[in-house]
Amino acid sequence: MIRHLTGELLTCLIGRASTLKLVPAILLLTAAAGQAAENYAFQFDITLSDRAAAALRDANETITVEAWYFGLPNEAGREHAEGGFVYLGSESMELPPQTATVRVSGKTFDPSRLAWIEGEIVTAVSVYSSRRSSDDNLITCDTFHEELKTVQSEPPALHCVLNDEL
Known about the structure:
The protein is α+β, with helices and mostly antiparallel strands. Helix content is 31%, strand content 36%. The chain contains 4 helices and 8 strands; from the N terminus they run ααβαββββββαβ. The N and C termini lie far apart (55 Å).
């Protein structure tokens, strides 16, 4: 229905013949946006100790993954920097408490901000319990802070344990 309404709207705005000429351009732009996001996508593995997985499941707890993109500011980017970095996007997701390969899609990456950085794009990831069953984080997990190209070529593995397993 949405596709039908969009087609009718385009027809009303610019005429039927012009609408047909726009369809390939719209499809090309949609594909380009998807390809741009794919350029910034990466993945990594999360593993949990047996005790952490069992405790989180027993508590009906999930895990939260937060991933950020950033870069060092160039001269033009200094006014856009926060904490010494130019923020380029982030993603957050909630997952069941189990071993998984996590895919960060890159859809929130803002390529217009690349003009404000020098050097490589950097990614950082943090994993913690989602605090559904407790106000406290129940697990301690590895983190990473690496160049995007490194993470894309060598996906890291993050391991999580219960805080009392340390």
